[in-house]
Amino acid sequence: MDRIPMTEEGHAALQSELKTLKSVERPNIIAAIAEARAHGDLSENAEYHAAKEKQSFIEGRIAEIDDKLARADVIDVSKLTGGKVRFGATVTLIDVDTEEESTYKIVGEDEASVKDGKISITSPIARALIGKEEGDEAEVAAPSGARAYEIAKVEYR
């Protein structure tokens, strides 16, 4: 069984989502199904079918989160040090062609949000950066073609 790396913040967010799904969403959908049943013939009851579909989604998400939390490898990024890029690193990159600077934190899959500057450990950029150090260049296969980045800074915060 593979371990799933995640930061403490990512782990807490999953636990919070799980708690909400179990204590709020699940009871709400049970009530919605009961109300839809009260309307009579279930074979032509759109509300009932929509509620059952939502229940299926919620139960699937609960199972998925339970599995991820059971396999979680929670990493305290504040205790990491060094100049090599690895999980939890905040990396400042300079695009070799455009001189444009960007900063990304390498996090778990569920925590990734490009608009917040967080990229998944499984993303092409993160995979190209892992193991490299400040001053190294990384070649990233992008949909628009290969891009080269210079690693300007590696931090753990």
Automatic annotation (TrEMBL):
Transcription elongation factor GreA/GreB C-terminal domain mapped to chain residues: 82-156
SUPFAM superfamilies, A to Z: FKBP-like, GreA transcript cleavage protein, N-terminal domain
GO biological process, one term: regulation of DNA-templated transcription elongation
Extent of the signal sequence: none
UniProt keywords, alphabetically: DNA-binding, Elongation factor, Protein biosynthesis, Transcription, Transcription regulation
Protein's UniProt keywords contain Mitochondrion: no
The keyword Nucleotide-binding is annotated on this UniProt entry: no
Family to which the UniProt record says this protein belongs: Belongs to the GreA/GreB family.
Protein's name in the database: Transcription elongation factor GreA
Organism name: Hyphomonas atlantica
